[in-house]
Design goal:
The chain has 2 domains: 238 residues, no CATH class; 163 residues, no CATH class. It is built from 10 helices and 32 strands. The strands form 4 sheets. Strands 14, 16, 18, 19, 21, 22, 24, 25, 27, 28, 30 and 31 form a 12-stranded parallel beta sheet that branches.
């Protein structure tokens, strides 16, 4: 049961939806049918993420090929909670009767508050992301939609990392400033919308999500109340600070190892550190202050605790080999060889590596690299590399490998590229 304050928060909220789905109907027929079902005007846009901002009376319908040909997205305006419930129910019913959804489809829920319908001053632009992340109960989402837990489209927000190996404990409420929290688009919550005065919840979706009205409604209320609690209780409590201190303790070994090579060697016996492929400890000690920040990032952001790290002093670049990085918050500007990766990877050269449920941006895939269920943006995929059930996009990307299933949204492909059961939407053939 909800308290009166919680009920006031729920009924004082505004919700906007983004429904992704497929339908065999022509987009004009979809528009007319949905407009009649919802009793709303609907504009058809030529491309996804158009400049038109939907209103309470006029929604928009866009092609969205992120899930393949035929996917469309209905974007509503921001609606009072009571009306939003009805719109959601009617839209889900329409999709169930006239369309379908796949594991690439999502329903995004955008939440704000109406100052005319709620007493408190709930300014979302002042939301403390750290406070919210610490207290948000993500398990409720994954209990209702377990298949979304490892989705590359809605990754967990529960990444809280120390900013640096030089962190010292801070007194009082300022301790949260020592930490890094998620602030990118492809997480379960898109915090980049905060300056616009709302929060976008991206967790929900998957095949047949249209059949889960009750679950979606219940989680919408959970999202509203979680946001409300943080906005009305912005001060870090003793419990919050204890949670942060516990996280700091989790990374204590990494921070101790930051100090010098001897401690690193003692604390991480399964990680071999080299410089220019040499094991001479005199050389390694000399370079350690120069490379320790990158090593600290690999441990904290990548989860590295075994394998080989080499620093190539000629090009000033870190190279890793035989590593298992299965919960990567972020890896960037590193050469990766003979490893396993799951997470966010940017601007890396990757060789003979297994990649799963990851987001790759501006990377180069070489050798026998196999990429499963991932998003590959603006990247080069070489002849012997394989992408299975993945989403390839970015006009500057070049694909020469083998692709099985998935969606090739856009990019360039050479004559060596092989596609099997892949939906190709826009491809530029190059020599």
């Amino acid at each position: 049961m909800y308290t009166n304050k919680q009920l006031n928060a729920i009924y004082g909220s505004n919700i906007g939806f983004e429904f992704e789905f497929f339908s065999k109907k022509d987009i004009v027929d979809i528009k007319n049918s949905l407009s009649s079902a919802l009793d709303k005007k609907i504009r058809i846009e030529e491309k996804a993420h158009s400049d038109f901002s939907p209103t309470q009376e006029t929604f928009k319908l866009e092609p969205d090929n992120s899930g393949g040909t035929g996917m469309v997205e209905l974007v509503t305006g921001s609606l009072p909670f009571v009306e939003a419930k009805l719109v959601m129910a009617k839209t889900l019913k329409w999709i169930n009767e006239n369309g379908k959804t796949s594991d690439r489809c999502s329903i995004h829920i955008n939440i704000s508050f109406d100052s005319n319908r709620i007493a408190e001053d709930l300014n979302i632009t002042k939301l403390d992301i750290g406070k919210f992340v610490i207290n948000f109960d993500e398990d409720k989402v994954y209990e209702a939609f377990p298949e979304r837990k490892d989705s590359v489209y809605a990754k967990s927000i529960k990444f809280i990392l120390p900013l640096s190996g030089m962190i010292q404990k801070s007194p009082g409420t300022s301790i949260w400033r020592n930490y890094m929290f998620v602030n990118e688009k492809y997480y379960g919550i898109n915090f980049t919308k905060i300056p616009k005065g709302y929060l976008e919840f991206r967790y929900l979706g998957g095949k047949d999500y249209e059949k889960n009205y009750s679950k979606i409604l219940k989680l919408s209320e959970h999202f509203i109340l979680s946001l409300y609690e943080t906005l009305t209780n912005p001060v870090y409590s003793e419990s919050d600070n204890k949670k942060l201190v516990a996280i700091l303790e989790k990374y204590k070994i990494a921070m101790d190892s930051y100090r010098n090579y001897e401690l690193f060697k003692e604390n991480y016996p399964n990680v071999n550190l080299l410089v220019d492929l040499q094991t001479d400890e005199r050389i390694i000690k000399m370079y350690y202050p120069k490379i320790r920040e990158k090593i600290f990032d690999l441990i904290t952001k990548g989860g590295l605790d075994e394998g080989i790290i080499n620093y190539d002093s000629d090009i000033g670049k870190i190279q890793i080999k035989d590593c298992k990085l299965l919960k990567c918050f972020e890896i960037s500007d590193v050469d990766i060889v003979d490893s396993e990766i799951q997470g966010n990877v940017t601007n890396c050269d990757i060789f003979n590596t297994k990649i799963k449920n990851s987001s790759l941006t501006s990377c180069n895939l070489f050798g026998d690299t196999v990429c499963e269920g991932s998003k590959v943006k603006e990247s080069y995929v070489s002849r012997n590399s394989i992408c299975n059930d993945s989403y390839i996009f970015g006009r500057n990307g070049v694909f020469s490998g083998e692709m099985n299933g998935g969606v090739f949204r856009e990019g360039r492909a050479t004559s060596n590229a092989k596609f099997k059961n892949t939906e190709i939407i826009e491809v530029e053939k190059i020599k």
